[in-house]
Write a structure and sequence with these properties.
Layout lengths: L2 H37 L6 H16 L2 H5 L4 H21 L3 H29 L2 H27 L4 H21 L11 H5 L4 H5 L2 H31 L4 H25 L5 H21 L3 H15 L2 H13 L1 H33 L3 H22 L6
Helix pairs in contact: 1-5, 1-6, 1-7, 1-10, 2-5, 2-15, 4-5, 4-7, 6-7, 6-11, 10-11, 10-15, 10-16, 11-13, 12-13, 12-16, 14-15
């Protein structure tokens, strides 16, 4: 196969892989009330489930480099897809809480491996613009998940059918990785070894590095909280029909995806730091509109605004690291930020869930607004206290 054609083929597979990576994240928020009812467990146990998902994600992402020294990238990607597919099947057939925990742990392990490995490959083989679009395709997957479950609902099927369907997609992708395993070769360079000379301890001695880590913790916690709790709030607290609520959840993930595409063009001509100020303000306005719930239209607009405004934050903050802290610290700081993002994505939704025991489900929209305000204040303080090179 011609080298250029081969590269385009791998880009296409990577796009499909990132869609499949987002699909399970879009499923759980809608399926959770049904799973909770089936197993007879409280709704706030979603937080426990998310913690085990993150534990699986971190366990695989932290050991990938060692595993890759013994197994080729193509085979490891294939195995990870088989693992996620099997885990999704486990969700559908599980009748016990402990079995569900095992399923979500291995779902996180498989997803973490796919995410990390494809980013390693993309950074070595693809242009920065292609890497940016990869994350937009994740949003397409997260948007499609609720739509798939909603479609199965309208056809008279249960949430289990959606999990079997998405699990089958993961298995099919694993077969595709297996068949193309020889194409997924990455030549190592000396960049990593040079960057490793900067110790973690030296990096963490910078106080503002900790603040940037906190920003990723809050941001991802907020994004995951909205995605996972929205369907439950709408159906259990605001009496929105399940089919309509599913479309609302898709609107959130869809606005995130559309935002990433549009902001990608906007950032070519505008300063990222200024764009992020606007994005932070948009999240606060959206969270306030959804919390007050003055009308259905205002709440719906608030959800769209939260998703759209969240779009540029994660990728733009990652891109700004070399400019904010210096290139020699970039690799360490980005590693800390991504880890903090995964932990925040588990802890903050869990905290929101625990609060419902005392204050009810409507405390969760209040927590959205509080998190949005803290996110904006942290960002403003960070930028004001750093010397930025434009």
């Amino acid at each position: 196969m011609d080298k250029s054609l081969r590269l385009r083929f791998l880009i296409l597979i990577s796009f499909i892989a990132f869609i499949s990576l987002g699909l399970p994240d879009g499923l759980l928020g809608i399926a959770w009330p049904f799973i909770s009812n089936k197993l007879g467990i409280p709704l706030d146990n979603l937080g426990v489930l998310l913690m085990f998902f993150v534990a699986g994600y971190l366990s695989s992402s932290l050991t990938n480099s060692k595993i890759m020294s013994k197994i080729s990238l193509g085979w490891l990607l294939a195995f990870s897809c088989f693992l996620t597919g099997t885990s999704l099947f486990g969700f559908a057939v599980s009748d016990y809480w402990i079995f569900l925990i095992f399923s979500v742990y291995f779902l996180g392990a498989g997803g973490g491996a796919i995410d990390t490995l494809l980013n390693i490959f993309a950074s070595a083989k693809f242009s920065p613009s292609v890497v940016n679009w990869l994350h937009a395709f994740y949003g397409i997957g997260a948007t499609s998940g609720p739509l798939i479950l909603t479609w199965f609902f309208t056809m008279g099927h249960t949430w289990k059918s959606g999990y079997f369907f998405v699990g089958s997609i993961q298995i099919s992708l694993g077969i595709l990785f297996l068949l193309t395993s020889k194409m997924w070769a990455v030549k190592e360079d000396n960049k990593e070894s040079k960057q490793e000379k900067i110790s973690y301890r030296l990096t963490l001695q910078k106080p503002l590095v900790w603040l940037s880590i906190v920003i990723f913790f809050i941001y991802t916690g907020l994004e995951v909280s909205v995605g996972q709790w929205l369907f439950t709030i709408l159906t259990k607290s605001r009496t929105i029909p399940e089919e309509s609520a599913g479309l609302w959840v898709s609107t959130f993930w869809g606005s995130l995806t559309i935002g990433r595409i549009l902001f990608g063009f906007l950032l070519q001509r505008n300063n990222a730091i200024q764009v992020l100020y606007i994005a932070m303000a948009g999240i606060i306005l959206g969270a306030g509109a959804f919390m007050t719930d003055l009308s259905t239209l205002m709440s719906f607009t608030g959800i769209f605004l939260i998703g759209f405004s969240c779009a540029p934050i994660f990728p733009s903050m990652i891109a700004l690291v070399p400019n904010l802290f210096g290139e020699k610290f970039a690799a360490n700081i980005i590693g800390f930020q991504v880890s903090a993002a995964m932990i925040g994505g588990a802890i903050l939704p869990a905290v929101s869930g625990f609060l419902t025991d005392t204050f009810g489900l409507e405390i969760i929209p209040v927590s959205f607004l509080i998190q949005a305000i803290f996110l904006a204040l942290s960002y403003v303080f960070l930028i004001k206290n750093l010397k930025i090179k434009y």
